[in-house]
Design goal:
Family: Belongs to the G-protein coupled receptor 1 family.
Number of domains: 2
Helix content: 55-70%
CATH class of the largest domain: Mainly Alpha
Structural class: mainly alpha
Strand order of the largest sheet: 1-2
Membrane topology: Multi-pass membrane protein
Strand content: under 5%
GO molecular function: neuropeptide Y receptor activity
Organism: Acanthochromis polyacanthus
Number of strands: 2
Keywords: Cell membrane, Disulfide bond, G-protein coupled receptor, Glycoprotein, Lipoprotein, Membrane, Palmitate, Receptor, Transducer, Transmembrane, Transmembrane helix
Number of helices: 14
Largest sheet: 2 strands, antiparallel
CATH superfamily of the largest domain: Rhodopsin 7-helix transmembrane proteins
Length: 400
């Protein structure tokens, strides 16, 4: 399922000698997670990835994803840390998603790009074990967190529970998502081998492959199991939760929401919940659509090894991987487009950055204490308060 596995059956596809003396001729090939690499000294005239124009497009695509992902997710984490009004349970889970996406953007994608273009593992033994594990970990964290968000909102909205999850419980759940994800992704680091073999006299190629201890079908069984755990099962749970939430929100504001408050206040809360749910559902849809081609292609490879013989196998795999990785920068764009709290916070950060040269500082969306004036910061205080007034007018204590 990860992006860095070379083909363990390279010698079979290319009719080359086995990588080393540990090769077991009776074990059979292990189903690959990445298409056959491009090797120096071996002629692949029909491989589209060798074309300069294709490589330029891939470099631009991966570079764009990395830049947008790092900037967008870092901004999300920063505004949640910076603005007290945004420190809600749902936003902490959203920050957890951003951390997972940052992990992919910084630790995985740059190496994926180099590996795709060169076709040979040149990052050493340690990264051979670390990088596939890191991407598998990040994907699991994302899917588990999306489930947690959906189930938490289902609990609050469908059953009219006004008491939100406590923050200490929230942090415990986040820690649990990382522990569970680490366990689920561990085979990607455990069953792995770093080695080399000679293509021709004087040329040795370094490979980083999956190496399963049992039958040749073990890799396929794990891959299909992860497809179910990472994609189909989470989406089924999320779809069920949001279907019930949406059905509940389609009706009128319930009487329980109006207890102790006016009808208009209940209606406003109902409207905010509908908008927040729309944003979260859109996040899930983007995640599902982005990963669907990659998972479908991976499943086809697991079921029928003849897919590996396709002339454009490497190119198709890479295209589907690029589409999947678009999910790592899509969420910050959705927050800025669909949620006015995030939009106002983003604008406040940029405004604060623009005013920094004039001595202003945006501490939070709450008013600043009077000590600043006593330190001769009257003008700075005025700028900060004006900025905070603009932000406070748009940042409300909503569900997100």
């Amino acid at each position: 399922m990860e992006a860095f596995s070379a083909i363990n059956a390279t010698q079979e596809v290319l009719h080359l000698p086995p990588p080393d003396d540990r090769y077991d001729p009776n074990a059979g090939p292990i189903t690959p997670d990445l298409p056959t690499p491009v090797f120096e000294g071996v002629n692949f005239p029909e491989d589209p990835i060798r074309l300069l124009s294709v490589q330029v497009v891939l470099i631009l695509a991966y570079s764009t994803i990395i830049v947008l992902g790092v900037l967008g997710n870092s901004l999300v984490i920063y505004v949640i840390y910076r603005f007290k009004t945004l420190r809600t349970v749902t936003n902490f889970f959203i920050a957890n998603l951003a951390v997972a996406d940052l992990l992919v953007n910084t630790l995985c994608l740059p190496f994926t790009l180099v590996y795709t273009l060169q076709g040979e593992w040149k990052f050493g033994r340690t990264l051979c074990f670390l990088l596939p594990y890191a991407q598998g970990l990040a994907v699991h964290v994302s899917t588990v967190t999306l489930n947690v968000i959906a189930l938490d909102r289902h609990r609050c909205i469908v059953y009219h529970l006004d008491t939100r999850m406590r923050k200490d419980v929230c942090f415990g759940v986040i820690a649990w998502t990382w522990v569970l994800s680490a366990v689920l992704a561990s085979p990607l680091a455990i069953f792995r081998e770093y080695g080399s073999f000679s293509l021709e006299p004087g040329h040795t190629m370094q490979v980083c492959t999956e190496k399963w201890p049992g039958k040749s079908t073990d890799g396929t069984v794990y891959s299909i199991s992860m497809l179910i755990l990472q994609y189909f099962l989470p989406l089924s749970i999320i779809s069920f939760a949001y279907a019930r939430i949406w059905s509940k929100l389609r009706g009128h504001v319930s009487p329980a929401e109006n207890v102790g408050g006016s009808s208009s206040a209940g209606s406003e809360r109902h409207r905010r919940r509908r908008k927040t749910t729309k944003m979260l559902v859109t996040m899930v849809v983007v995640f599902a659509v982005s990963w669907l081609p990659f998972h479908a292609f991976q499943l086809a490879t697991d079921i029928d090894s003849k897919v590996l013989d396709m002339r454009d196998f490497r190119l198709l795999y890479t295209i589907f991987h690029v589409i999947a990785m678009c999910s790592t920068f899509a969420n910050p764009l959705l927050y800025g487009w669909m949620n006015r709290n995030y939009r106002a916070a983003f604008l406040a950060v940029f405004k604060c950055s623009g005013d920094r040269g004039r001595g202003s500082r945006l501490d939070s969306i709450h008013p600043v204490g009077g000590g600043m004036a006593g330190r001769g910061g009257g003008r700075a205080k005025k700028i900060v308060l004006e900025t905070q007034d603009v932000v406070s007018a748009h940042l409300n204590a909503t569900d997100v």
